[in-house]
Amino acid sequence: MVQLNRQYDREINPGEPIHIKVVGIGGAGSNILDRVMLDGIDAADLVAINTDVQSLTASVAAHKVQLGRNLTRGLGSGGDPELGYAAAEEASDEIRSVLQGGTVIFLSVGLGGGTGSGAAPLVAQIAKEENTLVLAFAAVPFSFEGRRRCAQAEESLTRLRAVADAVVCFENDRMAEITLPRMGIHEAFAAADLTISQSIRSVAGLLQRPGLLRIGFDDVCAVLRSGDARALFGYGDAEGENRAHDALAKALKNPLMNRGALLAEAFHAIVHICGGANVTLGEVQIIMEELNRHINDQTQLFMGIGIEPRMGNRLSVSILSSLSNSAEKPVTQLAKKPIYTLEPMPKPELKPEPARPAALPEASSTPALPDRAPLVESVAERSDEELMLPRTESEPQRPQPVRLAAKPEPKNQTAAPKKVEAKQETLQFEPVSRGRFEKSEPTIIDGQDLDVPTFLRKNVKVR
Amino acid sequence: MARDNIFVGLEIGTSKICAVVAEARHDGSLKVIGVGNAPARGVRKGEIVDFETAKRCVHDAIVDAEEKSDVEISEVYLGITGSHIRSFNNRGVVVLEEGREEIDEQDLDDVRTNAREVSLPMEDCILHTIIQHYYVDGQDGVLNPVGLLGKKLEADFHIVYGIRTRIQNAIRCVKELELEPADVIINSFATAQAVLEKNQKQLGAVLIDIGGGTTDFVVYVDGAVKQSGVLAVGGDHVTNDISIGLKIPTARAEKLKVDEGNVTLGTAFPGETILLKDETGFAGREIERESLNQIIHSRLRETLEIVRRQIEADQNLHYVGAGVFITGGCSQIRGLEHLASDLFGMPVTMAHALPMAGVTSAFENPQFSTALGLVKYAHLVQMDRPSSGGLIKNAFQKLKGMFRN
User: Fold this and answer.
1) Which pLDDT score, from 0 to 100, does residue A441 have?
2) Which among A19, A352, B87, B201 counts the fewest CB atoms within 10 Å?
3) A245-256 pLDDT, tens digit each
4) What local confidence, expressed as pLDDT, does residue A177 receive?
């Protein structure tokens, strides 16, 4: 097997380092930040922003910004987003100064409360004005936290989407599936934090790590921007003889992935494979081949490979994708266009080019904003469709259309139900393709996984 | 052991576990006195994946065999399979020391040891070293070199190896049931003992055993094992394909495969359907017969093609004179004979174990070929070495020359 030569990354590695800042806003945001800190992240500044002084002092972040010194006087915002927004406005200069100098900013925020929901859009706004790329990781409250909170979260999310380059939205309900119902409530929250932290770390990792096949921020944006509701994220690592297979299986086991079944609906996905110097071509092939069974034919895959000597004999696989709840196709294509015009940009990024961080956000933010309009509209449409779709019962978006009062294009609306049907048909096949052999060691001969039915591999039509 | 002329063959298969009890008679023939079997659970692709469950099933099969044969079983010949089992051919060389010209037993051992000295991965161990041919001073066609004069003794061996821990799983399962594994034999060899006649091996034969979880094959050329292999695809895969393709539960798919399956395409009338009866009283579902056949055909054709490609890759297919013999539970599927003869371009026989005395129904069922082969193998080993008493560690050593037959 071909051993990937570690020498390669020396040349490919761009000279320009990427300054990453991870910003936690509000109580939940700083919890996530603490988690990120505990798990360890390379070369990133951690910034905690909160109204609540107590929570702020407890935070392990290096930089801290207190919001609303005069307005809330060190207390929380009492679950009022308006107050959170006002408090952030008051401290906007301080926020600006702490965000300066970053290339990429990750916002981690728990939506639904006051500070997080209110301040996050403003922080994102400021970050954009500072010419940084903004990627927001937002946790949506548990459905049992009440309608009001969910509605606040949704509103904030819409605003955040309009500003940030990409928003990854995590549903607490989904993430808590990792924990059993009888486990402590703190564990359910911790599990949610952990998942978000893992995904922040892996996105940061894939932007920073020297890669043989690099994934740029543009790729990340392309994947995350197109969806408007759920993030699909999976991370798994393994070592040993069968590590490629095991790591992928672990990544797919992540509850956000639903065993990879949800991947079939995604239009874009990032796969990042990271390992020590001994990653083999065969292993990459195994991962990609197995993954290809979970996605549909239209899915665009961005593959990245990173060589990280610290990984030793371990191999990790991160999968990042987003899933739209509505019939997404027209919207995706709209969103894709500006990214495609950007395509030549990331290539020069391989050589050290100081102008790039400034140039990219400019280019992406201007076309991105008009794009948001159809995206926001699709939120409105979706809630109409929700009534037809059986599986979205936990979606807290119902109050949305009234408030937004967006005028949905009639063209889009007629197209929407059709798309939904088509999606359901393609869904059924992929996830079951190994059937009862799902868990057993794959039998691979001449590059074919023999556990997958022959008629599927040979494309024999069966009625 | 209750009586020392009793042999028990135990095959832990993917779909069923089968124990055959046979008695060696004074005239040198073997009489089957009981066949016990139990449906297997906890076994996938020929290997144990759920130890406790599999152990219970083995226990059931052994108890069944004990009841039917009225023999208390204490020692078994264990059949082994699994995708980890591999094989290759290697030649050993021994040069007699100065002043000695007569080849003796010790030289045979030495040449065998010499051939086994190959570098295998750490976790692997050799299961069999089977003699193919001896050469004395470069001259071939030597059947037994002991007593011949020569300077140099060479021998070709077929060496079968597998991952130690995975082989030990099956051994441990037997041992935990207070049974002593007398020997461990790979399934394809065992099956060949039961199915192929001496002259067929001499002419050259391919034996394919399509079981539940694996397809084991062995190629005989000039009476010696030339090639062997295990493919972790079997009847389970057919069932799984049907279940996925027609979207029916596995148990239903299995029944459909056995009752209605046919690998020959174009045998169904256009639009001919099979009505799936529903025990719960709901309206049944109709399934197109041609679709079912198409699924089975695709899978089995592919499986046989892979086997053929592997045999062709070693250029052994030209030396096969007696044809292809197919056995195992999955060989019962209708039309497989035609498909196989199309693929191999030579006569194909749907084989089952050659008759022995005793429980005759066992021989007619290709599902029992391997377990019957195990006792036949045990019997042959016993006859070869009447002193007996060897356990698993020195088991390989005593198989000398036996596969020449």
Assistant:
1) 80
2) A352
3) 888 888 877 766
4) 64
Convert the pLDDT of each residue in B62-100 to its tens digit: 999 999 999 999 999 999 999 999 999 999 999 998 888
- Flag whether residue A447 sits within 8 Å of chain B, measured between CB atoms: no
What the block records as the tokens of B121 is 């991965």
B86-162: CATH topology is Dna Ligase; domain 1 (3.30.1490)
Cα–Cα distance measured from residue A160 to residue B52, given in angstroms and rounded to the nearest whole number? 54
Looking at residue A355, its pLDDT comes to 42
Domain extent listing, chain B: 86-162, 197-350
Closest CA to A374 of A78, A162, A123: A162
How, if at all, do strands B357-358 and B30-39 pair?
parallel
Cα distance from A435 to chain B (closest Cα, Å)?
Answer: 6
- A407 touching chain B per CB within 8 A: no
Q: Is the pLDDT of residue A276 over 50?
A: yes
Give the torsion through C-alpha atoms of A385, A386, A388, A394, to 10 deg.
170
Higher pLDDT, A149 or B312: B312
Residues of A in contact with B241 (CB under 8 A): 435, 453-455
Structural domain B197-350, CATH architecture:
2-Layer Sandwich (3.30)
Q: CB of A411 within 8 Å of any CB in chain B?
A: no
- The DSSP bridge pattern shows strands A63-66 and A44-50 to be parallel
Contact A454 B298 (CB under 8 A): yes
Q: Does A13 touch chain B if contact means CB atoms closer than 8 Å?
A: no
For A17-208, CATH gives 3.40.50.1440
Q: Looking at this predicted complex, what is its ipTM? A: 0.80
Contact B240 A455 (CB under 8 A): no
Q: Flag whether residue A453 sits within 8 Å of chain B, measured between CB atoms.
A: yes
Which residues of chain B are within 8 Å of residue A458 when distances are taken between CB atoms? Answer: 298, 302
* Subunit contact B298:A460, Cβ cutoff 8 A: yes
Q: What is the pLDDT of residues A173-184, one digit of tens each?
A: 766 666 556 667
The reply to whether residue A440 touches residue B45, judged by beta carbons under 8 angstroms, is: yes
Query: How large is the average pLDDT for residues B166-184?
Result: 92
Q: Is A438 on the interface with B (CB under 8 A)?
A: no
Per residue in B372-388, pLDDT (tens digit) is 999 999 988 887 764 44
A434: closest chain B residue by CA: B240
Whether A456 has its CB under 8 Å from any CB of chain B: the answer is yes
Which residues in chain A have Cβ-Cβ distances shorter than 8 Å to B302? 450, 454, 458
- CATH fold for domain A215-432: 60s Ribosomal Protein L30; Chain: A; (3.30.1330)
Residue in A453, A460, A463 nearest the CB of B288? A463
Tell me what pLDDT residue A196 has.
Answer: 81
Determine the Cα–Cα distance for residues A345 and A358; give it in Å rounded to an integer: 12
Residue B56 has pLDDT above 90, yes or no: yes
Beta bridge partners of A219: none
Rounded Cα distance, A164 and A121, in Å: 8
* Contact across the interface for B45 and A441, Cβ inside 8 Å: yes
Q: A459 — contact with chain B (CB < 8 Å)? A: no
Percentage with pLDDT > 70 across chain B: 92
Q: Could you please report the per-residue DSSP string of B226-294?
A: EEEEEES--HHHHHHHHHHHHT--HHHHHHHHHHH-B--TT-SPTT-EEEEP-TTSSPPEEEEHHHHHH
In what order do the strands lie in the sheet containing B180-186?
B180-186, B75-80, B6-12, B16-24, B30-39, B357-358
Residues of chain B contacting A440 with CB distance shorter than 8 Å? 44-45, 49
Mean pLDDT over B159-183 rounds to 93
d(CA B46, CA B59): 17
**Average of per-residue pLDDT values in chain B:** 87
